[in-house]
Design goal:
The complex is a heterodimer.
Chain A: E1 5-7, E2 10-13, E3 19-24, E4 31-38, E5 42-50, E6 53-56, E7 65-71, E8 74-79, E9 88-95, E10 104-105, E11 109-113
Chain B: E1 3-7, E2 10-14, E3 19-26, E4 30-38, E5 44-49, E6 56-58, E7 61-66, E8 71-76, E9 85-93, E10 96-99, E11 103-108
Parallel strand pairs in B: 2-11
Antiparallel strand pairs in B: 1-3, 3-8, 4-5, 4-9, 6-7, 7-8, 9-10, 9-11
The chains are: A mainly beta, B mainly beta.
Chain lengths: ~110, ~110
């Protein structure tokens, strides 16, 4: 099992540019989560999907952020336009919904917006 | 709003010391409490606790949950430099995992 796969590993972009982060969850997992981690705020849940349907996006900071899950094996998190304060590590995690929280995390995408 | 608070924020010890990390929580519809270790990359799973008073143990690490007082502790005995990491506590409540801010542990040789 390859685990949760995220790409790219690192992204450096200029303010105002569009950024797309990608995630492939573990096959068979039916829940997918996007987290953002910063020194100041720790790990914050942005959005989660269950069976490809967005269930709770209350953590998405603002309209510049959007997430999609077109099928069970792929999700994207898009920031448009990006701002320096979006710089963080973005983690994707997946789980089988009945696991009581035993999520598996991807290696994260470190985003730097200059 | 669900809340998970960890203490201390950071800790510096020497190899061989024993450390205790704390996690308290206030959540609705508690299901489980989890501990993760985060080194350079993604958090990696350590323990899942669902019942009070039952210690979970893995080598030098152990953890216990108190559902009455709403807290958990993670103990590490005979610490090693490889234990240096951020230790994250998370509570699974409703259908979501809420993380604490983490405890940054540094173990000096």
């Amino acid at each position: 099992d390859a685990g949760v796969i995220q790409s790219p590993r690192h992204e450096v972009t200029e303010m105002g540019q569009e950024v797309t982060l990608r995630c492939k969850p573990i096959s068979g997992h039916n829940s997918l989560f996007w987290y953002r981690q910063t020194m100041m705020r720790g790990l914050e849940l942005l959005i989660y999907f269950n069976n490809n349907v967005p269930i709770d996006d209350s953590g998405m900071p603002e309209d510049r952020f959007s997430a999609k899950m077109p099928n069970a094996s792929f999700s994207t998190l898009k920031i448009q336009p990006s701002e320096p304060r979006d710089s963080a590590v973005y983690f994707c995690a997946s789980s089988w919904g009945r696991d009581n929280g035993g999520y598996t995390f991807g290696s994260g995408t470190r985003l730097t917006v200059v | 709003e669900d809340k998970v608070v960890q203490s201390p924020l950071s800790l510096v010890v020497h190899e061989g010391d024993t450390v205790t990390l704390n996690c308290s929580y206030e959540v609705t519809n508690f299901r489980s409490l989890l501990w993760y270790k985060q080194e350079k990359k993604a958090p990696t799973f350590l323990f899942m606790l669902t019942s009070s008073g039952i210690e979970k143990k893995s080598g030098r690490l152990s953890s216990i949950l108190d559902k009455k007082e709403l807290f958990s502790i993670l103990n590490i005995t005979a610490t090693q430099t490889g234990d240096s990491a951020i230790y994250l506590c998370a509570v699974y409540a409703g259908n979501m995992l809420t993380f604490g801010g983490g405890t940054r542990l540094m173990v000096k040789p």
